[in-house]
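Lecture 7 notes: from sequence to structure.

We start with a single chain of 424 residues. Read the sequence below before looking at the structure.
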Amino acid sequence: METAKRIDEEKEQPKVITPRQKKFILMGIIVLLFVSVVLSVAVIEVKKSKSKTLQFISPTVKSFTKTETVSGRVVQSHTETIYVNPTKGSINEIFVKEGDTVTKGQKLFSYEDTTIAAELGQAEANKKLAETTVTQKNDQIASLEKDIQNAISASQSNTTDANNTDKNATNTTNSTNSTNTPEIQSLQAELNTAKEELNAAQLKVEQNTLEAEKLKAQQESLTVNSNNDGVVLNLNKSIGQGYKATDKQQISIMQIASNEPFQIEGKLTEEEKAKVEPGQAIKVSSKVVADKSWKGSISEVSNYPTNDPSTNQDKNAKKEAIPHYTFRATLDSQENLYPGYETNLEVIVQSKDLLAIPATSIKGSGKSKYVYVLKKGTIYKQHVKTGQKQGKYVAILKGVKEGDKVGKNPSWTVRPGTKIDLDK
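Now the structure, written as tokens:
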């Protein structure tokens, strides 16, 4: 009776599920859910593949470029540094301020030289004095010539025709005698002297004119003008009126940055220089100006390296010189760019026309890439060798040719050997 009673009690107790059993049950549920999802996706894909006809396209020729990315900085196309000339004396006046826009030929600053000013004043005074003398001598000569003419007329009017033997001979003798009177001879001598003095005065005018022009040129050279249109930069504020540099000093007073279009300046490593050449197209971008780029070309690359010491952190190690080559690039446009901006340049170092197909046409990976091609109404699997990818297209180096029919976007349900009638 006790044994039967114990059996009845065990039947009445609920069955306990262990944690391990719970774990197995949960994993079973997850597996079932995963399988159901995969089956659902497969069914959907099959339905899609059945409802969607495989499209075929022919490879097209596209231009593929290889680029080399280098860094650079926006600079003025030309910057002229102007130094103080110690041989021209002290600074007299500075006519511009930093940041001013100047034009070619505009005055920048001037030197002061009192000696030239004094000599120029004396030369101009001597010139005026000589010009006054010339005027006086011209008046004197005109007056003497008039007096001589009057004296000749008066002498001729007093001559008589007393001797009628040889009338013509008498007239000739009287005419000759009338121009050789003491009064006329004295006036003639005075006239000759006045002409000599006129020549001397005219020569002095020419000499003083040349001297004044020479001194003016020297004085004009004391004013320094801008050689280009541009902007005044780095004006030396320690230089002012009265400043004079010594013979051994080379002091910059200002810089004139050209207003010509900006350029990009940078450095190339030996490896980069082997790829970058003048004339190559570039695409420029800058972190300062987001979502904008500029086009241009490489204008010059130096053939002579400059060396920078390496940034070796080991103080005991010998520092090596790292050669680099400077380059410059011109821009088609400089909107929103300013000197000093750091830029990245994508230099087009190679451009080739290659057959290309959409990237979606390619299946597989690595050396096992393939496409589906249609030949005489049958789908075949064709292995291909791919090249550079550019946008949505991939270059095909081997495997297909122009005129082939390549599946545009094949699904995983496509099978080689399938017959397709494109006319339907």
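The mean pLDDT is 84. Keep this in mind for problem set 3.
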